[in-house]
Amino acid sequence: MEINIKEGSAFHILKHLQEHLGGELTPTKYEVKKQGLSITSQVFSLIKGSTIMIHSVNSDKDIYYNVIGDKADDRYLNFRFEYTSDIMKNTEDHEEGMDLQAVGMAVYDTSYSFKTHNKGGQLNQWVSLRISISQMKDVFPHFGEYLEGLFSNEQNWVKYDIAPLEIHMLLKDIFDLDLEQRNPMTHSIVLARMIECTGVFYDRMLHKDFKVQSNVHPDDLQRLMELKDKLINPFEPLPALSEIADEYGYSLSKLKRDFGSVFGSSIKRFHTDLRLEKSKQLLQNEKRSITEIARLVGYNSVSKFSLSFKKAYGITPKEASLKYVKE
């Protein structure tokens, strides 16, 4: 299934979905339920100029979205945080080939055109925060000042990162709510958790090595997202950069430049960060030994794994495991 969506306000986007898929649309909710497809999108307009959308999509088949950018001056900055409810499930019964793919988070100017999709046969959940760029200067003046040094003033940009465990825990608080109950407590939790998610994302971006923004062409961005999907399996060894460049039709210099522009790191660093983030999630499962976890995320040496983990998080895997068990 393929759907074309023109960027705009939250209601405008959901209206597009309704035109393609049917269903019921109100100012606070879009819902469609039919054989092989279930979509629920909850809309929270809590602060002038910003909208939070909470999405759950379950389809028998893959859904492909062609998102067409909006070049209008009154466009949006969109933060998107992916969520998976089984990120901390017991993995003791899984074989070494189990799917431990990471979820991600992104921010982009809605003038950007790109392609994305929801995988069929599984529950896809994410939360987005859309902030009107024109309103942001009035409603969030200090936030705008912070972002100014990090994000390009030009149109056509996107930045992506692996969603850390902290983001998952914040999103879990949202998805655990009864979102049909629109009371002050629900509104407060949704707003607070999204502010925290944005803060975590921004803090991580400050520590990334983002290159001067080159306006990555939508086709190149699509190839980078496909490459990212390949990299986010921590069991797969990292191919040589020359092999990656050949496979995705890049010159080596352009691959490094475009990847650094979108992901704020080298390909090798991104893959290493992913392995360590997955190990942090696995450490919550007390039935897994540190030796097992090191092997699962591709480390043959436990000592090398421990050194890398401590360098990234400031504590050893053993200390992290005890911390998570207590929590």
What does this structure look like?
The structure is a single chain. This protein has 2 domains: 1-207; 215-327, Arc Repressor Mutant, subunit A, CATH 1.10.10. The chain is α+β, with helices and mostly antiparallel strands. It is globular. The model is unreliable at 86-100 (pLDDT under 50). The protein is built from 12 helices and 11 strands.
Characterize the overall form.
globular
The helix/strand series, from N terminus to C terminus, equals EHEEEEEEEEEHHEHHHHHHHHH
Q: Rounded to an integer, what's the Rg over CA atoms?
A: 20 Å
- Adjacency order of strands in the biggest sheet: 2-3-4-5-10-7-8-11
Mean pLDDT: 82
For the biggest sheet, the summary is: 8 strands, antiparallel
Please tally the helical runs, counting DSSP H or I stretches of 4 or more residues.
12
Uncertain spans: 86-100
N-to-C span = 42 Å
> In which range does the helix fraction lie?
40-55%
Number of domains: 2
Strand content: 15-25%
Structural class: alpha+beta
Number of strands: 11
Q: Which tags fit this structure?
A:
327 residues; globular; alpha+beta; three-stranded mixed beta sheet; Arc Repressor Mutant, subunit A; eight-stranded antiparallel beta sheet; 23% strand; 2 domains
Quick summary of this structure?
With 327 residues, this protein is an alpha+beta fold. It is 43% helix and 23% strand.
How would you summarize the topology of this molecule?
Elements: E1 2-6, H1 10-21, E2 24-26, E3 29-34, E4 37-47, E5 50-59, E6 63-68, E7 76-83, E8 104-109, E9 114-118, E10 122-132, H2 133-139, H3 141-148, E11 158-162, H4 165-175, H5 184-206, H6 218-231, H7 241-248, H8 252-263, H9 267-282, H10 290-296, H11 302-313, H12 317-326
Parallel strand pairs: 1-6
Antiparallel strand pairs: 2-3, 3-4, 4-5, 5-10, 6-9, 7-8, 7-10, 8-11
Helix pairs in contact: 2-3, 4-5
